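Whether sequence alone determines local backbone shape is best considered at the level of individual chains. We regard such an encoding as a compact summary of how the chain folds. The sequence in question and its structure tokens are set out directly beneath this paragraph.
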Amino acid sequence: MSVADKPFVRTSILAAEPPPPGERGAVAWIRRNLLATPKDVILTILALALIAWAVPQLVNWLFIQAVWSGPDRTFCATTIQGGIQPDGWSGACWAFISAKYDQFIFGRYPLGERWRPAIVGILFILLLIPMLIPSAPRKGLNAILLFAVLPVIAFWLLHGGFGLEVVETPLWGGLMVTLVLSFVGIAVSLPCGILLALGRRSKMPVIRMLCVTFIEVIRGVPLITVLFMASVMLPLFLPTGWNVDKLLRALIGVSIFTSAYMAEVIRGGLQAIPKGQFEGADSLGLGYWQKTRLIIMPQAIKLVIPSIVNTFIGTFKDTSLVTIIGMFDLLGIVKLNFSDANWASSVTPITGLIFAGFIFWLFCFGMSRYSGFMERHLDTGHKR
């Protein structure tokens, strides 16, 4: 066989080449995602028409014709052309938000003492940021400070300790109460949910029956019912003369409700773990708690990160229901100020609700983005 007849065998791998120009860039993305089929083209045109119609009006109402400053409602009836117009003629009344902003954040907390919740907020941020950074050192110490030490310091600062003036919890309100309720509910629900999920899968009938009963009863009633029970019925089971603070009752109700839902989320992650992981842990001679802590639970939690964060987001939004038991969170304090005669107008309620909705969205979106970051960091192996 001559050299020319010998088959050619490549000894090196070809270098990767870039995709064709038509498959890259914004034009390719638009063609692939918005104009791929006739149906996509029609839907894209309809969506663009809707955006072209709605967005200019929203921008005009929210920003261009909006009233940004003023001492009372009369300024919210003034258009950009000047002159007093009927209610609803002007844009958004951001002057109302500016005038009530401190109350939306702190509720009816005394003006001279609002430095105390401000310090608690700063401490919370300083401890939370390193807790959320995977590469930050001393996670154990950070967790102890955030979940054990900070709540004690926060209570004494907010309620009154170290010689400070006592501020009763009925005066608390606004975003401060929303954050307190959601933080405690989230911090308590995760460990309690893990224990309930493990109890529901326990081989001990009594433990399993108690956990199943608790989870199904709590999940079978709305949060409003749980809050009413915590607010009205809980004092009935206490000795005569004992009283439980209303905020503490709300904290207990939110924590109990969230724990039941978290238990089912964790149980779903446990059921997704292959049987071989349990058998491999048993073959190593690990005990039940060693196996659960080192092998099973880390994998289960990693699998259900989206569901865990979804429960956290639901908890954050559900805190607005505490209004029915006489507490005023962010949404409650915003609605309470609608009755202020100095700011009563047709645009005041919608402006206040937009402000409250934006604050809720900001926190929920942040939790959602962090969830995506943690999924990528842990590399669950699933398509995102």
About this structure: Confidence is low (pLDDT under 50) at residues 79-88. The longest helix spans residues 348-378. DSSP finds 14 helices and no strands in the chain.
